[in-house]
Every structure is written in structure tokens, then in C-alpha cells.
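Subgroup meeting minutes
Present: P.N., E.W., G.H.
Scribe: E.W.

1. P.N. recapped why we're keeping a running log of single-chain structure predictions: easier to compare across weeks, and new members can see raw inputs and outputs side by side.
2. G.H. added today's entry (287 aa).
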Amino acid sequence: MQHKDLYRAVLARRSVRRYEHLPLDEGALAQVRAIIAAVHPLVPGNRFYAEIKDLRPGDDPTSELGGYGRIVNPPHYLVPYVIGSEHALTDLGYRSEQIAVRLAAIGIGSCFIGCLGREEAVRARFGLPEGARIAALLIFGRPAGGPGGRVFNTLVRTAVGAKHKRPVEGILYAETFERPARPPQHLVPLLEAARHAPSADNAQPWRFLWHGGQLHLFVKRHNPRYGPGPAAQYNLHDGGLCMGNVVLAMEALGIDGHWVLYRGAEPEIPPHPPRFLPLARLCLGQC
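Output recorded in log:
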């Protein structure tokens, strides 16, 4: 894959709700399996799995799993899950977004169907191990062509607000959370990738703080779009989706670096309001 195609996919990927009638051929499915196998971990000690499932014509997993809206002709879906005790949901989002973007880069559309509020039932349905964390299924297949398919996909994305992304100036602060800021020029392409990340109900929980020459990622602790209970943890999964977009942009643009996850007591965590949860800092170059 050419690097320019990967960055284009980071920015251009959108949720697809209407698919072609035919399933993917074996060659395309082999590409999907190769993408899954090549996913980079956020926490190497966690174990990641993504099982491919096929759907019969007329099946719609959203009716059973409670996802918003309707999906037309979904041919396949992934059941991605993580087993591990450290940042499991964030790691899961980080790896799942890599898959979704790389699928988009080869012309395969996808759509996340969240299931955090039904996690125990989903584990039972798919026979997942005790303790496995699963936050969303990933529907995938060839997007429906023609004006009908394009109009349907656009209408659904608009209905849930997915086209309304915060500008970079709406997610970045400088030195303190009292100072919204424009980013340094070298961070612009990375923050553009971050703001294009998907999130449950388009909540966009991520906020960045440029502090002491480093970029720190926070997520909002509470968001009414998620609702109460287990679904509130979408902030961790969505933070991972955002981090996945950033690391793919770095790969595409030849930028050396990696994420360093916070465990909660590091001295380098900048002062911040209680409404924000520190998630990670971006280490660029040698740091």
C-alpha cells in the first residue's frame, strides 16, 4: 500500500450502511485475514482476536445487538475482542481502527456496531472466553454502488451526526485546558487524523493538551451520548480508535513515534480538570 493511500484512507473512511448483495470473494477475504494478522498492538501483553463471520441474505445483526439504524445487505462481520488486564478497551479500539482503515484503503467498507451495553450477552452468543472484552462488531463488505447506495449511506451518517466533526481548534489546548489553541504545524496532519476517528454516537470524547512540548491525550470521563452504566466505557474504546488513526497517519507520513499509555500516577501527566481522564502521551522521535 502506498503511504499516500493510507493517509487518504484515514481521512476518508466513513461508516457504510448499505452493501453489495454478493459476499467478498476468497481473494478479498484473504486480504482481510492478512490485515487482521498484521495489526500492531498497543499493549503487547494483551491477546487480540478478530473472528470473521458470514451473514445470510436478509440478516441484520443490528436488530439483535441493538445498534442504531439499519444495515442493508451486510455480507460479513468481525467479532474483535481482547483478553488482558491492561487498557483492554483502549487497546481493542486501537487495533480495530487499524483494521477498519486498512479495509477502506483496499475498497472494503465497514461499520462499527457497538455492544458495550450488552457485552455479557454478546460474549455468550459467540462463546467468547470469560473476561474477554468486546466493544463493537465490525460489519464489512463492498459498499453499494450507484446513487441509491451513496444517498442511503450519507443520510444515515447525517442522522447520527457523524459528518459533524469538531475542528482541530475544538479538541486542542495549549499548556492549560483554559486555552483552546491552534496546533503547531508539524502536528496538524496528526490531529486531522485524530478528529476523523469514529466514536460511539459520534461522541468525540478526545481532547489534546500540548504541554511542555508534548502532546497528551485525554478523554471526557462522562458523556451523555454514551448513556449510563457499562456503555460509559465507550470513552476508552473511542480513545483507542483515535489513537489508531494517529499511528496510521504517522506510518503514512513517515513520522517516527509511538503512544505511551498512562497508568494514572505518572508525574508527567499535566494538571487537568477532573472531567478529563488522562489516557496517553504521544512520543515523537527519540523520547
